[in-house]
Amino acid sequence: MAALFTGKVLRANRERDEVETEQELGRALENKVLLLYFGSGQCPRCRQFSPLLKDFFLRLTDEFYVERASQLVLVYVSRDETEEQQSAFLRSMPKRWLAVPFGDAFKRELELRFAVSEVPAVVVLKPNGEVIVGNAVEEIRRVGPACFRNWQEAAQLVDRNFLLAEDFDDWTWRSITDPIRRLKYKLDKETEAKNKERKEEGEESS
Known about the structure:
Layout: E1 9-12, E2 18-20, H1 24-29, E3 33-39, H2 44-61, E4 72-78, H3 83-91, E5 98-99, H4 106-113, E6 121-125, E7 131-133, H5 137-143, H6 147-155, H7 165-205
Parallel strand pairs: 3-4, 4-5
Antiparallel strand pairs: 1-2, 1-5, 3-6, 6-7
Pfam family, one: Thioredoxin_8
Domain Thioredoxin: 1-157
InterPro entries: RdCVF, Thioredoxin-like_fold, Thioredoxin-like_sf, Thioredoxin_domain
């Protein structure tokens, strides 16, 4: 996915620091479904939809709602008229959102690439940049967070949380001790066979 942002810069929400696309962003996008949210804080339709998208994102990524955050990342591509408007809108949205910097020509490039003509629009992408859903606005409205499972399956994500921590510890311990147990079992069997052989030899000699 980082290939989509090669040579570009994204900004972390409410942070002055830019996200280096070649390093931090590459790690941030790895093995995740990416949402590109094309919107504006002034657009009436966006003002209706944005709170739904915020709730959708939080219910999948915030520890208040889920034990482990879903493999999901969102980049805001704004049509705000001023940088202040974009900043004001982002301040009301989750901190984990990323955003294309205001005035960056890359926004237009993304609109053309994904054929976005009006907002709000949510383009859902696989980690390799392939499109899963061209515009998921209605799906998010209709289904809510449940639609993420379909995207996750379509993206063929590797489930990083397939083992709970305690299960993993137990699995690791079993993996380490199993060869030892198998060796001990083998030695016990060999000892038992030798003892039996000696006993039989002793009975024959007597």
